[in-house]
């Protein structure tokens, strides 16, 4: 676009129609430009017109595409000083008014606006005489002084600029540039020609603004006076009440007499201690002497409703049928033997001593093993009400004890609220995620829980809101946690901890077959005749598509199969969909988790170890390679400090038995050893790999192969003892899944066989080792008579006499 000035009626330049904005010559102002055509006009002005643009106001700010008839005739030629792009395509620009101009023609292009304008003088010659102009200036100053008195927080700089103006034009600009005026008034001031005319009009506008401000001030004073009168009346009423109480003449003052009588009747019927009834009667008497609409009366009503809503003396009758309770638990959950035994024992004790108090059970285990659902089943088995309190993320002590009712918006704590929801004084209360509580400057909620879970104190639990003792001793508290590391020691001391370990493969299979498949079929509108999941299909889901301690992911995966079956039935008009191990990958994709398979053949320096993880047991092979060197030991596989120490113990013990197994005595000076645990990205730690390391090192140094069908676990000492380990249930399941035939475990773990699944015990041969020699005898392949075995370096080693082994 080229700048053209050869227009008969004036000058052609870019134009921006403004809404609710009038710019005076000499005035700097910031405003936003949002319309695309106006933004293009802004760019045209900066690029081709030295930053000059014509600003003209719209008569109606709601018109989106204005034409000449929609515009005022007088506007301002302004110079663009700065443009900043804002988010959303809006441009923030700063302009300075240069000269007043008349709109001769408005040209609306497809992408911008242009205008033919005729410049006008900013101030024409005044028709007023000098003394008349002086009088107008004085009146404007007086009006502005009155305006400044009524206008709150008028800046001193503006007041000084107005009072110090020397000419009529300076006075006008000092007032017009700084006083917030209505849009139509600013346009009228712009269109006025001379400074005198502008000041006369300004004086009229200021007079109107002064009237409005005076009226606003008068209304404000009246409202303030009314508030003060109400407060004065309130204080007088309170004094009258105090005098009436002194004279014994207190009575109702605005409170409904029927409401007061109802409160007295409810308190009389309440099965609560006398001190509680006395406290409530005092509150009702206070309410009767208050104005019914007062804030304090509202607080007392809320307090009375809360306390009267608690289940005072309301108890449900526990079931006495232990067999029926056992049937309920067995129906709802598979496995969980220890938890069920503890609940049935509790029922048996209650049958003998119904008044037993102080039973707090803490269920600890990984996510998804059924801690929360066990609590619901306990409530069903006991025939009690069930209520759940979530403690995850609680940081404020007031969440447990409540807020004192003097605070605005006060309410009781979660314990009292739970009792109100339960509707009985002996519910099963689940305190979920008790290990997720934390503390900050508002207090320690775990400390507040000490009184709740202490059988010697909770018979008189005091909530800050109710301020009266409430008996929690009949409540059966069940808490859940994923770990006990974050639970405070005093709190842990008050609970009986029952650990729920991760589910084994067989337990997951039975849970899926008996519970999860039925639940998901019903949820997705299917029946057993429409979809079938075979046994090998369930095992495929457990082994290949889920790796977890619980069964939540397994349930979601079964739900995914249900959705795919529903689609097949609806789209392809299939009568029945059957999922098996063969076709599940066609629906769910490739197998995510590959199985831990044991070695197919006996090897030198490679041993099957067993490890425990949060999602179950795994087979952990351990490899040892012997090289010529200077006795350096290399440990790889992301091993932890404890496991590295086990490796050092294993090397030292191998030195002590070198002669017995035909190993060179100075191997620690001439040979380098590299000990590696595969899957190097997975951190590994713990002492239970000690026997595995010794077996692998002896095999590598002596040249004797390790049986491929043997897996082992156990901690070692420098004297050759095998110490007990944990997680035997999960480790043996891992060995069973991997196809191992024999498992070597410490002798002191013999009693843990009771917790192992029957299927696993039947499928494995157990070797119980007291010393490392028992492990080596069971794991190393016996060489033939008079055979000379080479070690991993090819050096011949003498034959070693075989030892007997202990089996079960």
Automatic annotation (TrEMBL):
The active site is at 688, 731. One of its GO terms (biological process) is protein quality control for misfolded or incompletely synthesized proteins. Its EC number is 3.4.21.53. GO terms for cellular component: cytoplasm. InterPro entries: AAA+_ATPase (IPR003593), ATPase_AAA_core (IPR003959), Lon_bac (IPR027543), Lon_bac/euk-typ (IPR004815), Lon_lid (IPR054594), Lon_proteolytic (IPR008269), Lon_Prtase (IPR027065), Lon_prtase_N (IPR003111). It comes from the Bacteria. PROSITE patterns: LON_N, LON_PROTEOLYTIC, LON_SER. Residues 13-210 form the Lon N-terminal domain. ATP binds at residues 365-372. One of its GO terms (molecular function) is serine-type endopeptidase activity. Belongs to the peptidase S16 family. This is Lon protease. The lineage of its organism: Bacteria, Bacillati, Bacillota, Clostridia, Eubacteriales. The gene is lon.
């Amino acid at each position: 676009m080229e700048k053209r000035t050869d227009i008969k009626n004036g000058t052609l330049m870019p134009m921006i129609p403004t809404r609710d904005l009038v710019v005076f010559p000499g005035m700097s102002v910031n405003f936003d430009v949002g319309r695309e055509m106006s933004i293009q006009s802004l760019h045209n002005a900066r690029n081709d017109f030295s930053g000059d643009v014509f600003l003209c106001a719209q008569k109606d700010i709601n018109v989106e595409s204005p034409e000449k008839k929609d515009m005022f005739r007088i506007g301002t030629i302004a110079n663009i000083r700065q443009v900043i792009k804002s988010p959303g395509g809006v441009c923030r620009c700063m302009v300075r008014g240069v000269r007043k101009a008349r709109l001769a023609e408005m040209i609306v292009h497809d992408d911008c606006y242009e205008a033919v304008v005729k410049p006008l003088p900013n101030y024409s010659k005044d028709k007023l005489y000098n003394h008349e102009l002086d009088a107008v200036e004085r009146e404007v100053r007086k009006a502005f002084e009155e305006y400044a008195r009524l206008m709150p927080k008028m800046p001193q700089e503006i007041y000084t600029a107005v009072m110090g103006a020397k000419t009529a034009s300076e006075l006008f600009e000092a007032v017009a540039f700084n006083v917030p005026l209505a849009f139509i008034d600013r346009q009228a001031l712009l269109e006025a020609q001379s400074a005198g005319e502008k000041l006369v009009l300004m004086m009229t506008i200021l007079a109107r603004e002064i009237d409005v401000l005076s009226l606003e001030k008068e209304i404000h004073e009246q409202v303030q006076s009314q508030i003060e009168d109400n407060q004065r009346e309130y204080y007088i009423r309170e004094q009258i009440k105090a005098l009436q109480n002194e004279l014994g003449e207190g009575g109702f003052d605005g409170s409904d007499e029927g409401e007061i009588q109802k409160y007295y009747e409810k308190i009389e019927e309440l099965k609560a201690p006398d001190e509680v009834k006395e406290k409530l009667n005092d509150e009702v008497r206070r309410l009767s002497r208050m104005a019914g609409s007062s804030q304090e009366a509202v607080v007392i009503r809320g307090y009375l409703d809360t306390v009267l809503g608690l289940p005072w003396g309301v108890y449900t009758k526990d079931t006495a049928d232990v067999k029926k309770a056992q049937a309920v638990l067995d129906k709802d959950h598979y496995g969980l033997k220890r938890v069920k035994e503890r609940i049935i024992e509790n029922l048996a004790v209650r049958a003998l001593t119904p008044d037993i108090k102080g039973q707090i059970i803490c269920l600890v285990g990984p996510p998804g093993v059924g801690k929360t659902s066990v609590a619901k089943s306990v409530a069903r088995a006991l025939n009690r009400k069930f209520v759940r309190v979530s403690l995850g993320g609680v940081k404020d002590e007031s969440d447990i004890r409540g807020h004192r009712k003097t605070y605005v918006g006060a309410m009781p704590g979660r314990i009292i609220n739970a009792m109100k929801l339960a509707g009985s004084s002996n519910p099963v209360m689940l305190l979920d995620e008790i290990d997720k509580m934390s503390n900050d400057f508002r207090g320690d909620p775990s400390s507040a829980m000490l009184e709740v879970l202490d059988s010697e104190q909770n018979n008189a639990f005091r909530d800050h809101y109710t301020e009266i003792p409430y008996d929690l001793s009949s409540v059966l508290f069940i808490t859940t946690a994923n770990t006990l590391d974050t639970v405070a020691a005093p709190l842990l001391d008050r609970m009986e901890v029952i650990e729920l370990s991760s589910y084994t493969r067989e337990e997951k299979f039975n849970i899926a077959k008996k519970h999860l498949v039925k639940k998901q079929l019903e949820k997705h509108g299917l029946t057993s005749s429409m979809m079938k999941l075979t046994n090998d299909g369930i095992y495929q889901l457990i082994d290949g598509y889920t790796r977890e301690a619980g069964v939540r992911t397994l349930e979601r995966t079964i739900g995914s199969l249900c959705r795919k079956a529903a689609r097949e039935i609806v789209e392809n008009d299939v009568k029945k969909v059957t999922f098996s191990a063969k076709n599940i990958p066609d629906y769910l994709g490739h197998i995510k988790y590959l199985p831990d398979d044991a070695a197919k053949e006996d090897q030198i320096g490679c041993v099957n170890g067993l490890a425990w993880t949060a999602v179950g047991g795994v087979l952990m092979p351990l490899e040892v390679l012997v090289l010529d060197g200077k006795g350096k030991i290399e440990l790889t596989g992301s091993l932890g400090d404890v496991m590295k120490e086990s490796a050092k113990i294993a090397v030292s013990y191998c030195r002590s038995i070198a002669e017995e197994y035909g190993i060179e005595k100075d191997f620690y000076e001439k040979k380098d050893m590299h000990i590696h645990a595969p899957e190097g990205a997975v951190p590994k730690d713990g002492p239970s790999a000690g026997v595995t390391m010794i077996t692998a090192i002896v095999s590598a140094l002596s040249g004797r192969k390790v049986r491929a069908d043997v897996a082992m676990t156990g901690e070692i000492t420098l004297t050759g003892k095998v110490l007990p380990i944990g997680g035997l249930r999960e480790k043996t399941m891992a060995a069973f899944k991997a196809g191992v035939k024999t498992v070597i475990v410490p002798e002191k773990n013999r009693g843990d066989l009771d917790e192992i699944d029957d299927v696993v015990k039947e499928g494995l041969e157990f070797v119980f080792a007291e010393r490392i020699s028992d492990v080596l005898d069971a794991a190393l392949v016996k060489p033939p008579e008079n055979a000379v075995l080479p070690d991993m370096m090819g050096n011949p080693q003498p034959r070693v006499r075989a030892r007997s082994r202990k089996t079960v």
